[in-house]
Write a structure and sequence with these properties.
The protein is an alpha/beta fold. It has one domain: Vaccinia Virus protein VP39 (Rossmann fold), CATH 3.40.50. Helix content is 39%, strand content 24%. It contains 8 helices and 7 strands. The protein has a 7-stranded mixed β-sheet with strand order 3-2-1-4-5-7-6, sandwiched between helices. Helix 2 packs antiparallel against helix 5 and helix 6 packs parallel to helix 7. The longest helix has 18 residues. The relative contact order is 0.13. The mean pLDDT is 96. Bound molecules: S-adenosylmethionine (SAM). S-adenosylmethionine binds next to strand 2.
Amino acid sequence: MNEYFISLLHDLDLELSERQWNQFHTYYDLLLEWNAQMNLTSITDQDEVFLKHFYDSLCLLKARPLSDQTLLDVGSGAGFPSVPLKIMFPALRVTIIDALQKRIRFLETLVDRLDIDVELIHGRAEEHPRKNHYDLVTARAVAALPVLSELCVPFVRPGGSFLAMKGPNYQDEIKLMKHGLDLMNAELKGVLEYEVGDYARSIIMVRKIAPSSGKYPRKFSKIKSKPL
Ligand code: SAM
């Protein structure tokens, strides 16, 4: 996989330094060590983790170039997609919010071992005060788009983007999300389809046009029972 991973990164115009190479290996080792005690990932084979977690996270680059933007990763779990992105783009200013305390504990140890600077917040996105607005808000495998967009879009600054990383079956969810985007002053910019090995993947790209009303996001029970 080492060679294959490097060649995939070349296709994204990325070159790994020795430090980044070591960081990915440290990440893999720690993921496996903690996974023995808590559920962080069902994928444990090294080649598969490098492909389906690390490379897939970096595929966000297909949607837009990255440098020193502010990025909020909602429901990052074991750090996807934001930690691989932070490894490759050290100037990126990453904040992670996750509802599960034990995942945040894993991430605290991870960022310490990787020697990277990431802000970690334990909490639910819809309950977190929206004091900061971000250039980019990402979410991978967190919820269906009509729910996810209400959790994420209010955190995007006008002109910024919400990028949802999904599988191949997004069409119905997109239809159901559009009205909510209007209400929150955002618009669908497009969908990018790509492949990771044999798996069809997609990135749903949403642009924020103007600030969202302070009434969004609503309480989770409302978001779930009556998506916008
Ligand atoms: N993004 C990671 C990935 O691609 O592997 C993790 C996906 S995991 C299936 C979903 C994560 O979202 C969990 O860690 C969960 O705690 C978190 N989550 C779900 N709803 C959330 C919410 N409303 N606010 C913050 N985190 C949430």
